[in-house]
Write a structure and sequence with these properties.
Elements lengths: L1 E5 L3 H12 L3 E6 L2 H10 L3 E4 L5 H6 L7 E4 L4 H14 L4 E5 L5 H6 L3 E4 L1 H14 L3 E7 L4 E7 L19 E8 L2 E3 L12 E7 L3 H6 L4
Parallel strand pairs: 1-2, 1-4, 2-3, 4-5, 5-6
Antiparallel strand pairs: 7-8, 8-11, 9-10, 9-11
Length: 216
């Protein structure tokens, strides 16, 4: 893919690393010349020192042929403007970080895919990693009404050696099992083993109850 990444803060820098590792063609735009030099010395990317809210800057980045523009700055107004400008130039998909909750609807109305309030997301992950130590990773969906989460089966768990069909899981579905580096698509006769990584989709109110099945 041909990607334009705007902003070289923490999110932008990490995004450049991920995108280049996956063999994408990447153009980076930032108003800080030093940041651009640093990222260019580390990754094989084209850097443009400039303001991505300006049409001329996005034209220089060839936004018309880009598969996506990803706006990662801390300025919601700037992120919105650069996404709208890129869409006008023909960029196929626009994605933006939205820092203030009250701005979310504007991005949705403009049909811009958004990642809402990254600081709050990090804070939530830190809090729940303490509150629910059994859960290895999680993602909230439907505004927090449901979660996709992963648990690791303890060797003392009462479900070890049992078939999935024998587990009494309500308001939740086991969607995948990672075992010895392989992914298993579970069926009713799949047997749970120690150290299985279980990915589960469940209603938020059932997460604690379901995750406790796999603990000692």
């Amino acid at each position: 893919m041909y990607l334009i990444i705007v902003g070289l803060g923490g999110i932008g820098r990490n995004l450049v690393g991920i995108a280049t590792q996956d063999k994408n063609d990447v153009v980076v735009i930032d108003q800080d010349e030093k940041r651009c030099r640093e990222i260019a010395s580390k990754y094989d990317v084209l850097t443009i020192v400039g303001d991505a809210t300006e049409k001329s800057t996005l034209e220089e980045a060839e936004a018309g042929r880009a598969n996506a523009l990803i706006a990662t700055t801390s300025d919601d107004a700037a992120n919105l403007m650069m996404c709208l400008t890129a869409k006008g130039l023909g960029t196929k998909r626009t994605v933006a970080v939205v820092n203030q909750e009250e701005h979310v609807e504007m991005f949705k109305d403009a049909d811009i895919f958004l990642f809402e309030n990254p600081d709050m997301t990090v804070a939530s992950h830190l809090y729940f990693s303490v509150k629910r130590p059994r859960i290895k990773d999680f993602l909230t969906v439907s505004g927090g009404k449901a979660e996709i989460f992963e648990v690791v089966v303890s060797d003392k768990s009462r479900v070890v050696g049992k078939k999935l069909s024998k587990l009494n899981i309500k308001d939740g579905i086991i969607v995948a099992i990672e075992r010895n580096g392989d992914i298993i698509l579970p069926k009713g006769d799949t047997v749970i083993e120690t150290l299985d990584h279980i990915t589960i989709f469940a209603k938020a109110k059932e997460v604690e109850k379901i995750s406790s099945l796999f603990a000692p």
